[in-house]
């Protein structure tokens, strides 16, 4: 279900240059960056605030102003996780109600990025206990610290298995990103273009290829989830495994272009063999005894 904004006005905000939207639209739709619920469908008319709910809820925000960071989760000792991983422990909600108060972009993208979400989020479903380990950073090249990209879902699963780990399941990835507060963004309720590697509009490189805007995994320290996990939105889109339904290979987090770039937004159009210059992954694992 799409998240709609209530009927209210806000002061004018900076928008993307008109010329940039052509590039954004081309890359967005060519790479399938909208969820299956959005594809080929005109955005609904404005109306009363409606919650965005399931894991594939489609809303994006892009307020340049940073918001105060909500209270971070109580640090959990990393001693029970493999090297390079952080422990994620708490009660996760399977159905979060998140209401966008201010949309950022003009038609036909008016329900793409959300500048400000209503706080707090509400758990409209059930909670369950979760306790697992996740890579602190996207899988990256040690020499450059840049996330590994151009990898398929199948390859990502194989690489994680080689480490005695597994490609993160969708509910694991989402909880590691949003925490118990169900934050729309890993850092809070207001989109901050400076916190994570997002909202780049200079996308075209030489010979029509995608321009590489990857950031080092050690950069942008504010792009951190309540559990301390880095770069979960933006930088590289990340493969995760969906455990129900025919489409198991899905992407979360978005990459560096102006898109939804939030914890629950998902892209489910790509098959398990798809590879992209903007697509990476991270691994999860059980806690150690």
Note down, in words, how this protein is organized.
The chain is an alpha+beta fold and 289 residues long. The chain has one domain (15-289): paralog of FGE (formylglycine-generating enzyme) (Alpha-Beta Complex). 11% of the residues lie in helices and 17% in strands. The protein has three helices and twelve strands. The strands form four sheets. It has a four-stranded antiparallel β-sheet, with helices on both faces. The chain has a four-stranded mixed β-sheet with strand order 10-9-8-11, covered by helices on one side. Strand 8 (237-241) and strand 9 form a beta hairpin. The longest helix has 13 residues, at 18-30. The model is unreliable at 1-14 and 23-67 (pLDDT under 50).
Going by CATH, the architecture would be Alpha-Beta Complex
**Quaternary structure of the protein:** single chain
**Nearest-angstrom radius of gyration?**
18 Å
Q: What is the percentage of strand-forming residues?
A: 15-25%
Largest sheet: 4 strands, antiparallel
Amino-to-carboxy terminus distance: 40 Å
Global structural class = alpha+beta
Extended strand count? 12
The percent range for helix content is 10-25%
Spatial ordering of strands, largest sheet:
1-6-12-7
Number of helices: 3
Report the top-level CATH class: Alpha Beta
State the CATH topology: paralog of FGE (formylglycine-generating enzyme)
Query: Which series of helices and strands comes N to C?
Result: HEEEEEEHEHEEEEE
**Poorly predicted ranges:** 1-14, 23-67
């Amino acid at each position: 279900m799409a998240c709609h904004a209530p009927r209210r006005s806000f002061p004018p905000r900076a928008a993307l240059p008109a010329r940039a939207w052509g590039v954004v639209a081309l890359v967005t739709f060519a790479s399938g960056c909208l969820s299956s619920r959005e594809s080929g469908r005109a955005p609904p008319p404005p109306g009363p605030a409606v919650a965005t709910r399931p894991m594939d809820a489609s809303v994006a925000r892009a307020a340049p102003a940073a918001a105060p960071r909500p209270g971070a989760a109580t640090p959990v000792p990393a001693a029970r996780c493999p090297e390079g991983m952080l422990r994620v422990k708490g009660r996760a909600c399977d159905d979060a109600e998140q209401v966008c108060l201010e949309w950022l972009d003009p038609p036909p993208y008016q329900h793409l990025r959300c500048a400000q979400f209503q706080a707090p989020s509400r758990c409209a479903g059930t909670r369950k206990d979760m306790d697992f380990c996740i890579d602190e950073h996207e899988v990256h090249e040690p020499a450059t610290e840049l996330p590994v990209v151009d990898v398929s879902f199948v390859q990502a699963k194989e690489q994680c298995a080689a480490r005695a780990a597994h490609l993160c399941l969708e509910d694991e990835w989402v909880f590691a990103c949003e925490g118990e507060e169900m934050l729309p963004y890993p850092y809070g309720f207001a989109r901050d273009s400076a916190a994570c590697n997002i909202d780049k509009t200079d996308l075209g490189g030489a010979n029509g290829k995608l321009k590489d805007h990857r950031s080092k995994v050690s950069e942008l320290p504010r792009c951190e989830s309540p559990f301390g996990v880095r770069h979960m939105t933006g930088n590289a889109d990340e493969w995760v495994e969906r455990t129900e339904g025919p489409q198991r290979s899905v992407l979360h987090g978005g990459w560096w272009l102006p898109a939804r770039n939030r914890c629950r937004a998902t892209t489910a159009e790509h098959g398990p063999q798809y590879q992209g210059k903007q697509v990476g992954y991270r691994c999860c694992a059980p806690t150690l005894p």
